[in-house]
Amino acid sequence: MKVLFLLLSVSIALVSCHSSSPSRSIQTINAEKAREVAREQVIWNDRLCPFSTFALDFLKSVYGKSSYKGLMPEQVIYGWLLCPEEWKDEPMILIPDADLRRQLSIEGKYAKFSELFDDTLGYRLNNIGADLPPEMRRLVKESPPVVELDEKAGMIILLTQGRLIQPRPDSIPPLSRLRVELEILYNKLSLM
């Protein structure tokens, strides 16, 4: 598997990236390695694209911003891939709906992935509206904020299982180097 090979090649480049808390660091790849893997080509959302595009889309979807604590999107992805046990405790899942945050007892706009599960590893969104009549409970579970949060959690689960993206199969011709560089440039412009 190309992704597995890529993962193994960057595992050597693991570094500690300091977070805002001096007592806690976030494991990921260094910036130089992140710029290198940005050019790898993957299948994401049924299209061939640079890893950079996937990483940026993922981070914007989950976190709502194009960087996390000064880390590039590629660094965030590799952090999740290489050290999911550490990253699950990072408050990076944007929950804009105050009522949903209140129901989940989450302080602030961002939740940790670990906060979406109870002590028995039960998925807390399954219990949303448990005290309501069945029809109202269904409406709550199908509300846009709950569906959006569920999709974000699903993206993280699929990422850590290695199922969110696929390496470019040999049967699909690679994108030209120019196209890759232009897409990466476009991604950088969207960061501004």
Spans of at least 5 consecutive residues with low confidence: 3-23
Percent of residues in helices comes to 40-55%
Our Rg estimate from Cα atoms comes to 18 Å
Count of DSSP E strands? Answer: 7
Dominant shape:
elongated
Query: The biggest beta sheet, please?
Result: 3 strands, antiparallel
Structural category is alpha+beta
Please report the distance between the alpha carbons of the first and last residues: 34 Å
The tally of helices reads 9
Strand order of the largest sheet: 4-3-7
How does this structure look, described?
By secondary structure, the chain is of the alpha+beta class. Helix content is 47%, strand content 14%. It has helices at residues 2-11, 31-37, 51-63, 73-82, 84-87, 98-103, 134-141, 144-160, 177-191, and strands spanning 14-18, 25-29, 41-44, 47-50, 91-94, 110-112, 166-167. The strands form 3 sheets. The protein has a 3-stranded antiparallel β-sheet with strand order 4-3-7. The protein has a two-stranded antiparallel ribbon with strand order 1-2. A hairpin with a 6-residue loop joins strand 1 (14-18) and strand 2. It is elongated, with a radius of gyration of 18 Å. The two termini are 34 Å apart.
In summary, what is this structure?
The protein has helices spanning 2-11, 31-37, 51-63, 73-82, 84-87, 98-103, 134-141, 144-160, 177-191, and strands at residues 14-18, 25-29, 41-44, 47-50, 91-94, 110-112, 166-167. With 192 residues, it is of the alpha+beta class.
